[in-house]
Amino acid sequence: MVSTQEDLKNRYWRKDQFLVSTDPSLFPIKRVIEVFDSRDFYWAKPVPVEAMEEMLRSSLSFGVYEQPVPENSTDSTIEPKFIGIARLITDYVTFSYLTDVWIDPAYQGKGLGSWLIRCVQEATDQMPYLRRTILFTADWERSVPFYEKLMGMNVVETPRGGGLAFMEVKGKGHPCYGRDGYDYDV
């Protein structure tokens, strides 16, 4: 079955008191802008509210939230706390670009980043004609091994003198999907 854009934009995953959701209406826009304006989000600059709303709606955006629910509580009105994000810029059919992956430093080391990327991978696995997912990272020491391990990504190009690593993983729609080795000409 082919997942539609609407199917993918209404996904939820739970792990203990944490939630990952692709529902763009859950993002606290002003808080997301604060994150984009922080030192921890060094690769981007904040954008105005309207642009941020459009950016999150136009992408397959994954929000990570803490939503503690007291034991034996039926109160479902507790507001979730925004603690992470990942975005797939995609046509929902053949291509996706992973960007803006961030977990609040206070929550790092709890496996939430790995879980977030597994949720992203689950969504891309539902795109049967996806040719590839790409990303760029400047963090050769941590990010490259992280994406190699979790998503099976490969560094496609190594720039002279360092710089950004260009990584990709082939999807089910790629002519070389499932083959051993990598053919750069395809």
TrEMBL record:
<dbReference type="GO" id="GO:0016747">
    <property type="term" value="F:acyltransferase activity, transferring groups other than amino-acyl groups"/>
</dbReference>
<dbReference type="Pfam" id="PF00583">
    <property type="entry name" value="Acetyltransf_1"/>
</dbReference>
<feature type="domain" description="N-acetyltransferase">
    <location>
        <begin position="31"/>
        <end position="172"/>
    </location>
</feature>
<protein>
    <recommendedName>
        <fullName>N-acetyltransferase domain-containing protein</fullName>
    </recommendedName>
</protein>
<dbReference type="InterPro" id="IPR053144">
    <property type="entry name" value="Acetyltransferase_Butenolide"/>
</dbReference>
<dbReference type="InterPro" id="IPR000182">
    <property type="entry name" value="GNAT_dom"/>
</dbReference>
<dbReference type="InterPro" id="IPR016181">
    <property type="entry name" value="Acyl_CoA_acyltransferase"/>
</dbReference>
